[in-house]
Amino acid sequence: MDSPEQPGHERKRDRLVNETRQLIADWDAVLNPPDRDLYFEFEGEIPPFQTGKLDRFSVTNAWWLAELCRLAYTPDAKEAGRFWNREKPPRRAMLEGKTTFREIHSVHKTGNHASIYLGESEGSRPFTVLCFRGTSKFRQWVMNFTASPRGWEFIDRNRGITGAFVHSGFDIFFKRIWPKLHHKLLALPRPFVFTGHSLGGALANLAAVEERPDLLVTFGAPKAGNAGFSKLLDEIPHHRLINDLDLVPHVPPADPGAGEREFFHSGSRIFLGRQGQIVDSVQPGLDESLDPLHLLREAFRQPVPPACVVDHLMVSYCRKLRAGVGINE
């Protein structure tokens, strides 16, 4: 016989289930906008990637790399056959006809993914783009927060650098995938361009220390290492883009008590303002005195994704850069 309290428990359970479903639907509507599957969309003729501007920042080049980073979250040839990807268009289908890029290699290792593209622009020599995918699996979220500093050691040269420390979680991911990438990369033509979004941006930083690229561009990347590690990137043309209220570039948070092991960014900092304008100053609208990890935790309790989450989406970077092509050059 049912207890008198059971109907009340059932109502509470049903209400919780419905609220959870609504929360997922509300977040999904924002995180998966209608244009999420439209890649390399541009009004008018698409401007080519400009290999002649690798020594300086180019909005056009940044837009191309942003689209490749967004494309990194789509299924490659290996992933396309899995049942949960059956309704998603394969990556190569989205490259053909719209771009001059060809995916040469796609590498997977313990949840990490990177693609190597061969780019060809009319009137210029071929070039190679190495693109790292950002966080897409639970194990990566766990490792993202494994932020203890670890002494940097080169893989190929089997030696460390005194005073250079890196994020231990990123270091583990990188050293699992890099050996599968490096020999493939060396067989392709220079110039080399390395890029990545979020976790992928951090991995691109580590890759740039192992094999110097001609250009390094990251989007919403967290800090990969300390000041000693960042100095290893000083001679590389390096632009890190931060979209308005994106909080991820502020993690790991500042920790003066860490001494020489405190994490810092490298490269030139480029902010994208609310309307996509290039803002070469402090990050607009962000109170840098707030703890970014606390804000991220609070974000996941909100009924809809707050701006600090939405601004981290790769589609948000692409929209603003597309609007800035030809204006912010």
Which value, in Å, is the CA radius of gyration?
21 Å
**The number of domains:** 1
SSE pattern: HHHEEEHEEHEHEEHEEEEHHH
* Total helical elements: 10
Largest sheet: 8 strands, mixed
Shape: globular
Task: Output the structural class.
Answer: alpha/beta
The CATH superfamily is known as Alpha/Beta hydrolase fold, catalytic domain
Describe the overall structure.
The chain has 329 residues and is of the alpha/beta class. It has one domain (10-324): Alpha/Beta hydrolase fold, catalytic domain (Rossmann fold), CATH 3.40.50.1820. Helix content is 33%, strand content 19%. It has ten helices and twelve strands. The protein has helices at 6-31, 59-71, 91-95, 138-144, 168-186, 199-210, 227-230, 292-299, 307-310, 314-324; strands spanning 101-109, 112-119, 127-132, 149-153, 160-167, 192-197, 215-219, 225-226, 238-243, 263-264, 268-272, 278-279. Strands 1-2-3-6-7-9-11-12 form an eight-stranded mixed beta sheet, with helices on both faces. A two-stranded antiparallel sheet has the order 4-5. Strands 8-10 form a two-stranded antiparallel ribbon. The longest helix is centred in the N-terminal third of the chain and has 26 residues, at 6-31. The model has no long low-confidence stretch (mean pLDDT 81).
